[in-house]
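Predict both folds.
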Amino acid sequence: MIYLVDTNVLLRLADRRHELHPVVRTAMQKLRQDEHQLQVVAQNFIEFWNVSTRPKDRNGLGISPPGTVRLLRLFERLFPLLPDTPLIYPEWRRLVAVCEVVGVQAHDARLVAAMKVHGISRILTFDTSDFARYHSEGIEAVDPSSI
């Protein structure tokens, strides 16, 4: 089975001092051991860059651009990148209308749209409640702590 890896999981993986870092590592090892695939879309890396390079006093990781480039290179090796396709936008458009998505939740709706286009039903995320609205769409949010 393929899991889309949410950006918050990538962020915890990058921050070795975060209390959830070991949880992410253990979950990823277990999923791979059970022969599941962990993949991402470009949006995950774009969101990662945003938070990684943002100063710590503004809720970021405060990592320099060169440091973030190194992390992205690592992540690109660990997590195959699913292609953006023209089919994602109409699916996103449908989801935001049907699910009455507002504000920043539009970003999660785009991840779900990409999942649906690529036939992925599970997302590995610490924000399971953010994806609960998509359960009727066949999307299951899985917290790394539960693995």
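Second protein follows, with its predicted structure tokens after the sequence.
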Amino acid sequence: MKGKQTALFPGNEDKVGYWITPWDEEPFVSLKKEFDFDCDPVPYPRPEGYNGIVEEWGVRSYVNPPFDGPHTKFSSWAKKCVLEYQKGKTVVLIYPMYSWLRILVEAGVEIRSIGHVNWRNPKGQSRRSPMPCFLFILRPKEKVNE
């Protein structure tokens, strides 16, 4: 695997907030077997001058983006993941989410992006949402008798 993560925090020389993937624990043992990753675009230790956002990735990449330091803007990593996926590659991205979202995803929620919303107060004044909004839709598996 190109750029394999191999060490735990010896010095953190490049000031990147690394949290090394525990490949010897589940679910990572199973993920490694399922996807047979050939690229880690966020290697530890990171080679001098290496930037996974601009490098070409492998056919099956595992992405554990850095949380601090250079090259840590998550939207840049998300865009790069989509770009590599559009080239026909498999990308597995790990990133922490709120617990409430996990509850919905595990229940089988349908998610729709609706972008920024121009909310209105009772006086009719408008305020654009600072972040894009999503709809979380839970539908019954069978039609409920009404």
